[in-house]
Amino acid sequence: MEYRKFNDTYVVRLDPQEEILTSLADLADKENIRLAEISGLGAVNDIQVGVYNTVEKQYHANNFTGFYEITSLTGTVTRQGGNVYLHVHMSAGDGKGHVVGGHLNKAVISATGEILVRVIDGEVGRKYSEAIGLNLFDFD
Known about the structure:
Elements: E1 2-6, E2 9-14, H1 20-30, E3 36-53, E4 58-80, E5 83-93, E6 99-119, E7 125-129, E8 134-138
Antiparallel strand pairs: 1-2, 2-6, 3-4, 3-6, 4-5, 5-6, 7-8
C-alpha cells in the first residue's frame, strides 16, 4: 500500500495480493483516523461479501473468485472501544457483466485498488444494538 494525504483526503493505491480491509485498517491505525468516508474502485480476484438477515440477526457470506472489477466501494471509518471499526460495502462485476456485492468481509486486489479516504473532523463511536443485532453509530 502506498498513499499520500492531500488536505483532508488520503489517496491510496493497493497492489496485487493486498487485502482491502486489512490495508484500510492499517492506514486508519497508523494515521489515527477517527472518522472518515471511503470510496474506491479497482480489480479483485478473491471476494467475500455478506448480506445481513434481520430476522436471524446474522450475516450470510458469499465467496467469489475470478476476475472482477470493483464497480463500487463505499463505507465509513469509525471507532469502537478505541479500535478502528470499518463498515464497507462493495459491488464487483465479472467478465459477463454480472455484479455481486454486499457487506465486505474480504477482497484481495488482483491488479490495483484506488481508494479515497476522506477524513471528517470529529469522532463517532459504535454501540451494539440488541434490537437490531449490529454495531450502530453512537453519538454520545
